[in-house]
Write a structure and sequence with these properties.
alpha/beta
């Protein structure tokens, strides 16, 4: 059953002509929860991290491969930011309209002020398809990676490609 938080995401993807396959599943708040969802589709999961700078004035959505470790120092250096840390649940809700465990590129639809900077690991961009949450963590969408880039471009986001080592 489609949740209310999903409806604007699905409508936007439909409007853009972006094809997706929707998979329902138990709540998946961690990467361990996600690991086996959609395996049969050939799509890859990625970690979606919502971070802020030390001052809490800049926000970043970082997409990295499921098996990669997030190293704050490396990513901070690539983005030219002194130090990144996770945002508060309140910032996540206010800026992206999301709750912890459901962070996804689809949350950028709610970032009407375009406060968020986007960075994507180069290995994620090499994948043909990835799985993304449609603003909730009880469903995942299989989408082509090029369509995620199309979504970003349509919303007016530039993204930086970063190199996250295993």
């Amino acid at each position: 059953m489609i949740n209310e938080k999903e409806k604007p995401v699905l409508a936007f993807l439909d409007e853009l002509g972006i094809e997706y396959t929707r998979l329902e599943h138990p709540a998946a708040a961690t990467m361990d929860d996600c690991r086996f969802i959609g395996v049969e589709t050939g799509a890859k999961h990625c970690k979606n991290l919502f971070l802020t700078n030390r001052q809490g004035t800049e926000f970043f959505l970082i997409m990295i491969g499921i098996d990669k470790r997030f190293r704050t120092a490396s990513v901070s250096k690539q983005l030219g930011v002194a130090r990144l840390s996770f945002t508060t649940p309140e910032q996540l809700e206010t800026i992206l309209g999301l709750t912890q465990g459901s962070v996804s590129v689809t949350g950028l639809i709610s970032d009407t002020e375009r406060k968020v900077h986007v960075a994507i690991d180069g290995d994620v961009l090499k994948e043909e398809k990835i799985l993304i949450h449609p603003n909730i963590n009880t469903a995942s969408l299989v989408v082509r990676t090029v369509d995620v880039v199309k979504l970003l471009n349509t919303l007016g986001y530039d993204y930086r490609t970063i190199d996250v080592l295993d």
